[in-house]
## 1
Amino acid sequence: MCYIFSFMFLILSLIMFILSFSFLMNDMVNLIEIWGLTLNSTNFVYIVLLDWMSLLFMSVVMFISSMVIFYSEEYMVGDLTKNRFILMVVMFVFSMMFMILSPNLISILLGWDGLGLVSYCLVIYYQNVKSYNAGMLTALSNRVGDVAFLMAISWMMNFGSWSFIYYLDFLYNNEIMMLISSLMILAAMTKSAQMPFSSWLPAAMAAPTPVSSLVHSSTLVTAGVYLLIRFSNCLSSIHLHFLLFISSLTMFMSGLGANFEFDLKKIIALSTLSQLGLMLSILALGESKLAFFHLLTHALFKALLFMCAGNIIHSLGNFQDIRFMGGLINQLPLTCIYMNICNWALCGIPFLSGFYSKDLILEVMSMSVLNIYIYLIFYISIGLTVSYSFRLSYYSLIGSFNFLSMNMIKESSLTMLKGMSGLIFLVIFMGSCFNWMLYSTPIFIILPFYMKFMTLLMVLIGMIWGLEFSKFSLTYKILFFYNLTFLSFLGLMWNMPMISTLGMNLNFLKMGKTYMKIFDQGWIEYYGSKSLFSVLKKMLNIQIISMNHLKIFMMLLFIWFMFLLLLI
């Protein structure tokens, strides 16, 4: 089953890539309308939007899905319900297809809710307490955005159609459209895990690694970014300023948190969060095409990074703590090479795919008229990205071997390596190809010398800081890092998981407990149920009627006759 779906998605990916190139060259947009019904002057129409953006994004999603499903064949080899897992992944991909292809809020909701429901099933796949907690946190955080989406649908009935693409340009200052845009931003913030909804993203790491690879590269978390790219024409300056502040703060918070994390998958999850913040912040600066460019390049190297992490976890007997790793370059050479290339692409090392989008984002940001906060937080976040990437490489690939002395680590998983090898060429070469495709004229940005080299400088500082930070443990009294309260604050994403769980439900649970003690097991127990029954029994004393005596029946018959005589 894995090979069939993998081959099918690969063929579809190639077809869509050729179509997107053709649409882009000829500047074509195709709208296919399937009429449903008309109710109260509102049209229920299913629309399929085919333009270069939807086709190119679908091509990338299909290609990554193809490699991930192929990879799953060996990763899930001992699982008894592997076919069920593959079918859920396929449903997940089709939900994303619904979302990408539709410019209509109703049909987007089908894909949007499909992503939420299937992601819940995949997060709780291993069926333990940690998975259930993570699944509930993921589902409930996303429900906030779903409610915003439903409210936007009800408000769009004022326009007579839910096809928002027709209204983006000329309803720019309309109050209802501004309200709908606000609701769309809220929906995108929950789906793309921006603050204060960030805590579900690392928690969703409870899912199997192939799912994490798919979710964090091109499907669930990018759905919010893609929606805002489509809505970018009608976002007002207030919306954009708000989005810029939130996304830049998310980017900084996740980059900082990843430097204090020891779980391999959570570090990569926080890295995804940081990149989502980068995409939304450049979108908020008015460069939606550039945000889409980074979305595509990021999808490629992040999918491969998770697949490498999965191979390492698989080989190390399901250990995820990076402190148990080290020196893996000797045992898993190809996986480590792939992982290092992905880390370099993530850092924006020149001429890998991440460099083309990331460097362009920073140079465009440097040309904008902004305050010092945005300028600094962008560059500090870039430095933090490089720092945690090199810390990860040091702990897992370069440092001393810390695993169990009785081990048998070797690169024997050929199917997984083939799936990973399918992506590595795209990670290296597709950044420049996307650049040539999306920008037909070469982009030439002139900046002062120190601003031009600011990116490279921050990369070097981050590299040195990451390597130095890896060498000292928490016992060393270095600067303010000795304070364990401060360390836990940074490592726990500024206490956001606590706020999202205990902060949301603790007071309600306490109130429920108090209510139960005072009412259910207190006064209501005294005045209700059994107590009420016994009091009534004492007061009325009519229990005698049910006693099976002949004189009682005779007495009741006499009363009945008397009653009839009185009525006559």
Note: The chain has a mean pLDDT of 82.
## 2
Amino acid sequence: MDKDFAAEIHPLKNSDGKSQGNDETRPEKEAGNKNQNGLFRLSRWRTAAFFTSLFLCLTIVFAFSFIIPCPVRPYSQRTWITQYNSAVTYVFLTTEDVNQDKVQDVLLLLKVANGSNFFNASCEDEGFESPCSFLTALSGTNGSALWTRPVAEDVQLLECGINKLGGIKSSGCIVIGKPDSITAMDSQTGNTLWQKNTGFAGNYTITKPLLKISDVDGDDIQDLMVVVTVEDELQSFIFSGRNGDHIGQNRNLGIDRKAGHYMHITKSGSQYVLFYTGNSIEGYSLADLYAKIVGTESKPGTFKQDPNWEGKANRTVGYVPILPVSSSGDVLYLINVPGKKYNNLLVVKSEVSELLDGQSLISLWSIKTINILSKPALGYYKKEVLSIMMELGIGNNRKKVIIIDSSSGAVQWELEMNFSSDNPNPVTLHTGDHRSAFLFWGEYTVDLNSTMTPNPNLYIFHPSRPKVLLQLKNNTQNIVLFDAVLFERSRHACYVLLTGPITTENPGTVSVSKRKLKEDITNSKVIWLGQEDADNNQEIREHFFRMRYSSNS
């Protein structure tokens, strides 16, 4: 009885007194316990990693939000104006980022009798007689002077934006003036990088522009060529871009006086200087000009000669004759027109304009352009297709504004309007849709018999609204220079006006002003070139107001 009772109560045991069933299942339980322990430890590591990552993210956000200060964007005033009394201005105005705040600044050249408008600067500081010429840099944000510097008693040539001039990392300006000197200046500070005597003959005239040429003295800095006219013959001088030293000798080029010159670069990268006067254009290899200046037959390896152009050269006269098919009229402008693989050459004459292939010199098209009023401007009427904007006088103080397709010479858009003797060059601004806004001056009126003096107004046109003009601003002062500038990359599109006297016999108030385009668009007058739709005037203003501008086409 006791045995049966015991058997019911206690399970069977092995000789060690342990259950057989337990012996069979224990390894499985131990393995299960180990797996559970491993998963538990892994879960703890995952949790720790999650909270550690979260802590690091919050720390970084906190640091950038409160500890590390964000860069302060300079506040650009929508409009500003700076005036100088008893001054005379030159036909010079350019923009570049002088103080490195990512906003374009304005450089201009003035002539004044004293330094009252320039803080403590005076002509005597640089040993010049008064009046003298001052180069000044104005902040693009508010028009305040960043630096001002007397540069010459009278300036014959000034060019800025020259990269690595004097070996600096930024850009610089070249000033050639009287008394006889050529000066390189740092655009950021106005400090002199180097100054030399030019060595020009006493009675000379500088032919613009300054030519930036390949490095010829082996210092990895581009050098400078200046062309001057002395007794109806051209002379050329080369100066080292690093220190201003003369390279070569003072030699006549054997070329008669020319109206102007232009640097053209062929498909192979060869540089040719095109001298023009009357209806003729003569192309000289830079390598040949260098050989004449230096007085040697050897030519540095930095100068290439294009085989196609050299094959067209007239060895008797020593140059490449460039004879457009439409040869009537005097050459007024030579303009670089970018093509798909190389630059083409727009020859603007007093009677006809013609586009030449920049490599073969074959005529691509020509168009009658009698009485050109201003230098043409390049922009985009269609996406990715370059256009040329021209202004042609048509009599009775009226002009025709035309936009030409550079690939075919076809007129894409045209408009007739009044104009005054003060007619600034048209300009363009690239827009975010790969086209351009075209800005020009005049007076649009449907009254063709009006005898009143035209009132100069600024207009903006965009090909997205081909039947609409916006009249932005009128101006009663004589405009010396006008330009449209993107003061900040991809934003803050403005225009700049320089007004004032340009002759020393009659000094007066010189004014330079910047105005944001959107300010004038808001209050602009909408002009319908087709059927008027006054109900949509505000929609048109908003369309132009929302327009975005691009630094590149």
Note: The longest strand covers residues 79-96.
## 3
Amino acid sequence: MITLVLLSLLSSIISEAAPTYQHHYCSNETFTPNSTYQSNLNLVLSSLSSNSSIESGFYNITVGQNSSNNTIYGLFLCRGDVTTEVCQDCVATATKNIVQQYCPRGIWVVIWYDKCMLRYSEPNSFFIMNDPSFSECTDNTTAAELDGFNKLLATVFDDLVTRAQSAQLGAKMFATKEAMFSSSLTLYSLVQCTPDLSSFDCNKCLRGAIANLPTDCNGKQGAMGLYTSCNVRYDVHPFYRIKPSPPLAPPPPAPPGLVTRTHNGKRQSSSVRIIAIVTSIAVSVVLLTMVYCFCRRKLKKKYKAKEEDAAKEITAEECFIFDLATLKAATNNFSDENKLGKGGFGVVYKGTFLGGQEIAVKRLSSSSKQGVEEFKNEVSLLAKLQHRNLVRLLGFCLEGKEKILVYEYVPNKSLDYFLFDPNKQRLLDWSNRYKIIGGIARGILYLHEDSRLRIIHRDLKASNILLDEEMNPKVSDFGMARIFGIDQTQDNTHKIVGTYGYMPPEYAIRGLYSMKSDVYSFGVLILEIISGKKNSSFSSPSNSENLLSYAWKHWRDGTFLELLDPTLRDSYLRDEVKRCLHIGLECIQESPAERPTMASIVLMLNSYSVSLPLPQRPAFFLHSRTETSMPIKEPGSDQSTSNGIPSSVNEASITELYPR
């Protein structure tokens, strides 16, 4: 009994120790750094690490289109006897070391530890019997009775293979066995298959692995064979966790009045009573512990089920679920040093996965007005959208009270970071600004007409335009977006959400929104990009004026270059500035019907042969009652005139807003 306890304790210690590296295989074919393959690989490794707490100890995933050369299939398999904590530790070690130490750029890779195996490759690149493998003797001592030892080993392995390949669907294809070879020697044996194999393939893989053990291991007291789909091992020393034998039931208490005597005739009734009491207490403690563990597990599963129900609607999309621990590790526990910015819905952090991929993590605050519905909305929308001018969603985390979105990392932050900072405006020359205007237009056009859905963004503004390393714009933040039907042209809402200064009048006053709402916001953006001034905080010689009315007056008076950001005086192209301002004023017309579509805008930006109608006075124009009859000058020259701006009355009204 004591021997079994010690063996159980020893095997437990062995199992809980840090993972021990055994071998790895790395193909000669490599991928290009910063390529789509590397991006997909980072997602595979992150997903494997995120799911390493799964109870089965096995997880596989495919990332990429099936027809693409960048598609990656990855999996991990933990030894069937280890705990989830040990499995997590082993998989984390494997994902880190394989890219940082053993195989930074390999396309076909497998790494073995004593407690887990991890691999990735193109789908179907590894074959059951012809895949990379590794085998060696773990104990070079020759058994005393060679024939008897080999016969026992053959019998044990035959039993183990039968048990492993006969596992029920979804169960671990794993089996261990202890067999006494002599009074002083016990044989410990283990076999395991990846659960994605069929029963037939598991049998084939295991028997092939046993047959292919090195010939110089014949009669040795320890050997192992490692394959990408199965593994076998035996040794005379315990290397896995041995399940302890069930404790013997305590003897029944003596009947009342029964007196037991020792050989010298002394009474032992008091001793029996003490043993009975101690045994009862011990049994009670064990039962209470079992009940507690059962209830705790049940509550944990119930709580986890709620999380799964909350995410069920969005897990079907082509989007990855990250666990909170992975995102904490990537962002250094959401440290202030990693903070990229803060918005109305929460804080955005920079993170780095183990494979080196940089990410942007949007962690919604508990006080954020974006609830679960808005969160689901943003995930389900972005998961369907793929365009170079839209930010790419990599995945999400919905764990407990946490609602987190994981995006591609866009290094140059947002447009407002440069546009409205006097010290950074010079970094945006006219060439970059013109490219940004065109990129935003193409992104919105994709939302309105070219994607699988017709999407109204409803919150276009400079802070929601991200800039990549080449200053290409990416539209972001789809929490307020809405999907329209194929024939739907507009909708209305009683809850006005968005940002003051970018809302069209029909939305701010009556709650009506349509594709033309985004067109209006885009027009405001154009004026901000040209002028380098923010509409909501615009200051002018007349405090009763806003950017829209200021731009209109310069257009009307033929002095449109006065609107231009002073930092652009040496880099602008006059015709491009004029055309962009013309388009911007068309976009902010008061009547939605007078605003162009995004398709027309993209065409107008790319073709000078398209004639543009003269814009009318824009929405929210602040004017005096005496200037409605003033003539409009076509801005055909660079002449600069100075006109006094009379006092004006703001005739626009806004309903109650819910600003972000």
Note: Residues 1-15, 254-268, 302-318, 621-660 have pLDDT under 50 and may be disordered.
## 4
Amino acid sequence: MAMLKFKKQSFIIASHKKLLCFCLASTASAAANMAELTTPQLNSQNTQLRERLEIPSPCYLDPKYVISLLISSIKLSQIRQIHSQVVIHGMLQNLNVANKLLYIYSQHKAFGDAYKLFSEMGERDAITWSVIIGGFAKVGDYIHCFGIFRQLIQSGAPPDNYTLPFLIRVSRDRMNVLNGRIIHNIVFKHGLESNSFVCAALVDMYAKCKVIKDARQLFDKFPCRDPVTWTVMIGGYAECGNACESLVLFDSMREEGVVPDKITMVTVVSACAKLGAMHKARLVHDYVFENNFSLDVILGTAMIDMYAKCGCVDSARSIFNQMKEKNVVSWSAMIAAYGYHGHGRKALDTFSMMLSSRTLPNAITFVSLLYACSHAGLIEEGLRFFSLMLDEFSVRPNVKHYTCMVDLLGRAGRLDEAISLVESMTVEKDEGIWVALLGACRIHGHIDLAEKAANSLLKLQPHNAGHYVLLSNIYAKAGRWKNVAKVRDLMSQTRLKKVPGWTWIEVDYNIHKFSSGDETHPCSKEIYEKLKNLNEKLELAGYVPDTNFVLQDVAEEIKVGMLYSHSEKLAIAFGLIATPVGSPIRITKNLRVCGDCHTFSKFVSAITQRVIIVRDSSRFHHFKDGVCSCGDYW
């Protein structure tokens, strides 16, 4: 009996080897034509194939072995040959084999084969539905994705916590909150609202669709919030621009005893970067090191970005130096940090170090490098790097690289070269190109080119109020008030409103926000008194308000009054009152810093002996001893 059993096993192993050889053979034409045969013909051919190749009957084939063949197959042709043999030997009725075959087709993005197989499957389980729906979702075929999900619902089969997150993410990626709500109703109907995977996906979907209130309501109702759900909600606030609430939520997470993981910390670090709050950044930094989070390329790079955007490029470099492993993203982040702090030469030196470390630059590296050249006035260096991209590093310039070059040439007043570059571009132009050109026209007062750039820009983004404002400001600077009125009328007709300017400062872990002429702050009386005393000292030192930056057709004394209470000045005055003597004052503005406020900040840094760090919408300005790090080239 033992001998017979041994012979039978030997026979099966030998047969499996022959099956593998057959599956990989290019001469299996009978299998390829299988779909055209009738059932009797197919049965006859099966018998002939078994006899010729000594393949055992279906009862002797091991599904595990067939699955291992599928997993080890590299080419799609091999998978199709195995599929043919699975059908020939009647193994498609084995759900494990059919599901694995469906999964392998999906992995190879062969969705024609996958859908045909799915359609022919007599039996389906939760894995079947999850694989086919998830596969179509990953490749962006939303029509088939939702179509098959509709079949799932109509079949009466209950959706599960694997399938539903795919549908929710599709709604998120398409910013389709209506579809998301429909899926949410199905989730509720099937009692899956308390599932952590499904809940996290829904919270994420609502947050990405900018319906943050719905995301928070769902989050608050969830009884068992795990680190994933907390991380999604924290990230959702940061995504919607409410980075401050992200950090409040992080504190609540720790108070509830939930231990954050590395993904949570990366999310929190990114929120600190968006907020630009140095004190919060220091606290997060301490938490990372006290809890022994490893400074890998992901967390380390996020912390470089955090410190750089909080205004401390030296701390960013310290983190960079501590990282044991650096990749191209880490190097690019450090180059970018130097770039928007105006340290162009240091950015170039870091690029040289990167090449010495044998790390090859990518497209992002060159965006960071060209940006650094643009903001430091390194014209020839920028032109050289732009030509080296393709010639030496095989990096093809995209629209972001062209935008940097237009900005670089435009800032330098080389507008003819900038427009020639725009006209010679082989890649599709986007709004960034025209914004860069329009910005150059603002600096150099080129009205005709500004109008051309604005017209192209408004065709791409007709509902962006910022573009209208920029053109209006160019007209105002040139004293063309009739044109200013026309632009403002056009904005009024299209119901567009100018984004209000805000400046905020962090003091004692609290964020204090100011608008122009703001009198709502509890210390408003002290702030204006400080500002009055400050202006008297500044005038003695030679400061004269530059009314050219008041872009309204009003009397000169009114212009001076309007400059007096700009949000940057209110924040700086409060910083002088509320922060320790000698400590840096860090402020953040949501728009480009005003030229008069730039001059004001230089004078304040000189007479108060305080370092003032201003982060505006495009870069950092470090004011010290009456000088700005930008060299007045901004």
Note: Strands lie at 502-507, 510-515, 585-589, 612-615, 620-624, 627-628.
